[in-house]
Amino acid sequence: ADYSYWTLSYIISQQGAQKLLNAEPLSKMLPVDEFLPIMYDKHPNEDYMSHFLNRNLQAFSTRPLLVQPCHYAGDAQWVSDTETSTL
Q1: Distance between CA 64 and CA 79 in Å, rounded?
Q2: Which residues, at least 6 apart from 44, have a Cβ–Cβ distance to it below 8 Å?
Q3: Does the reported pTM lie above 0.90?
Q4: How confident is the model at residue 68 (pLDDT cuts 50, 70, 90)?
Q5: Domain map of the chain by residue range?
Q6: Residue range 7-61, pLDDT digits in tens
Q7: Residue 49 three-state SS
Q8: Are 42 and 61 in contact (CB under 8 A)?
Q9: Distance CA 71, CA 24 (A)
Q10: CA angle (46 as vertex; 23, 60 as ends), nearest 5
Q11: Interior/surface letters 21-60, b for 16+ CB within 10 angstroms, e for the rest
Q12: Can you list the alpha helix ranges (DSSP code H) found in 4-76?
């Protein structure tokens, strides 16, 4: 997978979960939309990536998509933690 900014749904193996936990994400708080691409080494912000040394998580995406959002930007009841990001 390449850089993706919409973490709607994901499946994590036990080995993948251990890689994420080993990165100690709670000591470097950031949205999962930022954290996962960092961990599979596809984030555009080198400064963010410099805080996580082992970025060897394997990530895949499906086509067609298996999960789609129920709300989009501007829809009633739409909420985003990352929409105002400057990336």
Answers
A1: 24
A2: 3, 87
A3: no
A4: confident
A5: 12-87
A6: 888 899 999 999 999 999 999 988 888 999 999 999 999 999 999 999 999 999 8
A7: helix
A8: no
A9: 31
A10: 60
A11: eebebeeeeeeebbbbbbbbebbeeeebbeebeeeebebe
A12: 14-22, 32-39, 46-49
- Name, in order, each residue with C-beta under 8 angstroms of 67's C-beta and a sequence gap of 6 or more: 8, 9
Tokens 């000591």 map to which residue?
Answer: 27
- Indicate the burial class of 81 (C-beta count within 10 angstroms; 0-12, 13-18, 19 or more): exposed
Which residue is listed with tokens 């067609």? 64
How far is the C-alpha of 75 from the C-alpha of 46, rounded, in Å? 33
